[in-house]
Amino acid sequence: MREQAVRLLTNLLGIYSPSGKEELIASFIAYEMKKLGFEVGTDSVGNVIGVVGEGEPTIFLCGHMDTVAGHLPLRVEEDKIYARGAVDAKGPLAAMVMAAAEVSKEPAFKGKVLLTCVVEEEATSRGVRHLITQGIHADYAIFAEPSGAENITIGYKGQIQLKVICKTQTGHSSTPWLYENALEKAYEIWSQIKNSYPPLEEESPFNAVTACLTKVSGGRATSVIPFESEMYIDIRVPPQFTTTQVFDETQKVIEQYKAANPKVEVKTSIEDTVEPFEVNKNSPLVHALSSSIRKVLDKPATLLRKTGTGDMNILGHAMNMPIVTYGPGDSHLDHTLDEHIVISEYLDSIQVYKETLLKLAELHNKNGKQGNQQA
Ligand SMILES: [Zn+2]
């Protein structure tokens, strides 16, 4: 198994597959999955969908085939494989494929694995969004992204992309006392928004609302007082809030500013939102994965909550089922020039996935679907 697993991963890493250019890797992975015993098909956006096993429960496994752009040549050094996509996320994806193929040969496994290799996760999440529109019928879901073999990612923060436009009367820059400066006004609003959230020291970064000023523009000429400015603010939302709640609070701050500054015209618009997501820690999915990590690695599992957002946010809300993110590799190496995976960790994670599938099917068939609802 070891050799076969390492070969599958190195072959996947040998195929350059930036978002939007997944055709080659898709046909390769479809071919490999067929050889491993999956029933395989491809959908209209290019996702590869494989099924092994039958009966209940249905466990949905999902990983992405694309990487960020930027070729990073494949090289193996001692126990590490360096390549674009080694951790994000061909390592986790290959581990899932191997584990599902292995588990389907176990007579003790009574269940079905629906394994989907999606396109364009690093771009528009086109693959995952398409799956959601088609409807995913499963009882549990695991998303393949690097969490480290001994960790489980159970939550991601949400996000609001806010755009704020300020307009003022203009005049010559030699008379700044006569007019309001739209760039300065933007910065005043930004400061008030930033100060409206509790300071980070009072909360863990995961549980805090944070805001980051990401883009500012304005001003026409060096001799003209800026009369229009545009700024973008990236607000991150923890699971105890919805994006609407946080936006409403932010809007109040802006309304107060407007009341105090009647000469400044302020317009806000939401460019994009993603809801935060956190799985119920008491779900059988988290239990099965934690106990498998303990069994394989002889260590307790660590539950991670991430300050970023992932496809799990989209999937978690669209599908009414427990979902976690798990996979080998250090996510700090995502998108870096040093991206690599440790082979032993990759192999361990195959065992963890496999044990998890077995345990989950066992728990599900023993307890029925009780306890399988989201809190
Ligand atoms: Zn990824």
Q: Please mark out the parts with pLDDT under 50 across 5 or more consecutive residues, or reply none.
A: 370-375
Bound compounds? zinc ion
- Which word captures the global form? elongated
The CA-CA distance between the termini, in Å, is: 38 Å
Mean pLDDT: 93
Going across the major beta sheet, what is the strand order? 1-2-6-3-7-15
What is the number of helical segments per DSSP (H or I, 4+ residues)? 9
Structure classification: alpha/beta
The total strand number stands at 16
Write up this protein.
Helices cover 35% and strands 26% of the residues. The model is unreliable at 370-375 (pLDDT under 50). It has helices spanning 2-13, 23-35, 86-103, 126-134, 182-196, 243-260, 284-297, 311-318, 343-367; strands spanning 39-42, 48-54, 58-64, 75-77, 80-82, 111-118, 140-144, 151-156, 158-167, 210-218, 228-237, 265-274, 277-278, 302-306, 323-326, 340-342. Helix 1 (2-13) runs antiparallel to helix 3, helix 5 crosses helix 6 and helix 7 packs across helix 9 (343-367). Strand 4 (75-77) and strand 5 form a beta hairpin. The strands form 4 sheets. Strands 1-2-6-3-7-15 form a 6-stranded mixed sheet, sandwiched between helices. The chain starts with a helix and ends in an 8-residue tail after the last helix. The relative contact order is 0.19. It is α/β, with parallel strands linked by helices and 375 residues long. The chain contains 9 helices and 16 strands. The structure holds zinc ion (ZN). Zinc ion is lined by residues 64, 88-89, 121, 145.
